[in-house]
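Data card: per-record layout.
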Amino acid sequence: MSERFDISTFQLGRLSRAVTSWLHYEFLCQRGRLFSERYLTNPIASFIQANTDLLVHSEVSHPTLPRKLIDFVASKKTESHDLKISEIVIAIETKWFYKSANEKQILAILWDILRLSLIKKNNSATMCLFVIFAEKKIIEKVYENKHFRIRGKDKNLAPLLTRSAGKNPKIKLYESKAILKAVEKIKREFKCKEVDFPSEIITNSVEFTEFTEKSLNYCLYIWEIQV
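The structure for this 227-residue chain is written out next.
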């Protein structure tokens, strides 16, 4: 059992299908009204613990940002209160949208990505994953939101995250005024002005799954964050 985990063969597609299938089951059991960011913890943790020798911990202190948290991490350690960055095998941030996101919620997406990028910067062996789950029509509204279109050059801004599988777009923190403004706002709001975030963040390995019930179409996306 101790040899079950090989990060090079960990399949995000299987994780995406497993989580979506579980959420579909929960919806059919009339529990769709309970969907939330925290609701994603159970299927993600169950899949990781069933397919690896890792243990999943929720709300773990960020190893390089004092008083900040990571939604959950996977490690071989049984205790999570003193995890060192070298002991974090997988780090995950999740987002659930029940209505179209406002500027504050979109900044929270970038904040999640920045926190993951710091872990990746300090330990390249850690797999850092960002997950979004919502109704398809709501995700479309997020992508249409002007506050989400901050990646790329100012004259041709693109969405912060691509949904094209196989592409490895970079988030360049100093390329556009829009993204620079967003990062500066995050640093002020979360009191991390002195933090040296990576200047380039790669959003890699987009995995997408969905289910439809009662005219509702739910989608789940997983990005691997690299630097």
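Known properties of this structure: The chain has a mean pLDDT of 89. The first strand starts at residue 55 and ends at 61.

See the next section for split statistics.
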